[in-house]
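Table S2 (continued). Query chain:
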Amino acid sequence: QVQLVESGGGLVQPGGSLRLSCAASGSILSFNAMGWYRQAPGKQRELVAGLTRGGSTNYADSVKCRFAISRANAKNTVYLQMNSLKPEDTAVYYCNAKQLFDSILGPPETREHWGQGTQVTVSS
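Corresponding output:
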């Protein structure tokens, strides 16, 4: 069973920084992609940052140049460095891992795993 545990959330003032961590129970290289999602009250979950096994990244337009996703393979951990935080960044942040399984006998299968979430609040 895959377990993802987020940490690092908290209360921070506008303009401040936080680093979120997502620790996996196994090698993160077993996942085709990992990412951070967030969900604010009354809004749908959105992708914040993604990282593929090969190292490519993508970011939501709202966080480009402010957030950075990275990984420490030996620690089985993915990070989200958040700088220049804004009140609109306030949300519960979730770690996600995706596994893709190909088969010559049928369609590919996708498995996703989620952490429990960590609250980030940006306020004065």
